[in-house]
Amino acid sequence: MATERTIRYREIAEILRGRVTSGEYVAGRLLPSESELSEQFSASRVTVRRALELLRDEGLVSARQGFGWFVASEPVRQSLGRLATIEAQMADSGMNPQRRILEFAFVSASPKLRRILGSDQVLRVRRLNLADGQPFAVVTVWCPAELGQDLSRSDVERSPFYELLHVRLSGATQTIGADAVSADDAVLLGVPAGSPVLRCERITNDEHGRPVLYSEHVFPAHRTEFVVHLPHAEPSIAPSGLRLVE
């Protein structure tokens, strides 16, 4: 019986290996759950897990707690040292960036948006960013209605806001945190509801320091990582926590 189970998990591993190497399961794609694979192959979850662990040892798949198994891929490394679009970051990683507009509408600003952007009406654009045809991020961008009044859905589908707004940008403040993906975003990103994501909030300012864009980005935790360069700082003459007085 043990011999049959050993042979079976290797058979399952061989089939899954073929799906990965043939491109049927593309890099970064979430695999069917262990339960689904167990039903598909008429095998126990223990046997399926052994097959997946074998592929993990070969570097073909990876697993993350609360997320599941996915085809191994190098995460897109996004630098925090410069103001850049998602498309530029993906292109730097050798990926083909695409965008799909999900919503384009002028709406009343929420109290939070009114406080940040200083406008009662805003343009809201929600989109799905793809890397090599696979879901990479759900992004929602708001800008004051007066800045976006001449923009069309096709404009924002073709180009990023940074290229469309007729203002000079000076920089942005970005906040990054961990979160659990919502049911709606999970469907778009092709991940289980409640699985870990990185949630980024960015406020982009014009040359006068006025906020002109507010955006929220949701990334599956296994698809990207953020990198920041920390320059060496000369040690302070004063000991930490002390203040020199005359």
The major sheet is characterized as: 6 strands, antiparallel
Radius of gyration, in Å, reads 23 Å
Tally of discrete structural domains: 2
CATH architecture of the largest domain: 3-Layer(aba) Sandwich
What does this structure look like?
The chain has 246 residues and is of the alpha+beta class. The protein has 2 domains: 2-71, Winged helix-like DNA-binding domain superfamily/Winged helix DNA-binding domain (Arc Repressor Mutant, subunit A, Orthogonal Bundle), CATH 1.10.10.10; 76-227, 3-Layer(aba) Sandwich (Chorismate lyase). Helix content is 31%, strand content 34%. It has 9 helices and 10 strands. Pfam families: GntR, UTRA. One of its GO terms (biological process) is negative regulation of DNA-templated transcription. GO terms for molecular function: DNA binding; DNA-binding transcription factor activity. Residues 6-74 form the HTH gntR-type domain.
